[in-house]
Write a structure and sequence with these properties.
Elements (H helix, E strand, L loop, with lengths): L2 H17 L2 H19 L5 H35 L1
Length: 81
């Protein structure tokens, strides 16, 4: 028997044992429970998070510009009095 055939046979048999074992059922059940738990947590995707981070950065920049503008206008008012 060739080495590669021997190892292929062992790999196939191990795969069959694992497929039919309770470990596979436990894995499926754990994945299902985790999916249900994550669904209840109201999580966002990474893409949604990145979009909101960009919106926040733009909003902060506009706010800083407006604050600077208000300070300049307040200074002009004080200088006129």
């Amino acid at each position: 028997m060739e080495k590669t055939t021997f190892f292929d046979d062992i790999q196939t048999k191990l795969h069959q044992v694992l497929e039919n074992s309770p470990a596979k059922d436990i894995e499926k059940n754990v994945k299902a429970m985790m999916s249900q738990g994550f669904a209840k947590l109201d999580l966002v995707t990474r893409e949604e998070f990145d979009i909101q981070a960009q919106v926040l950065a733009k909003t902060r920049a506009k706010l800083e510009a407006l604050e600077t503008r208000v300070q300049a206008l307040e200074q002009r008012l004080l200088d006129q009095n």
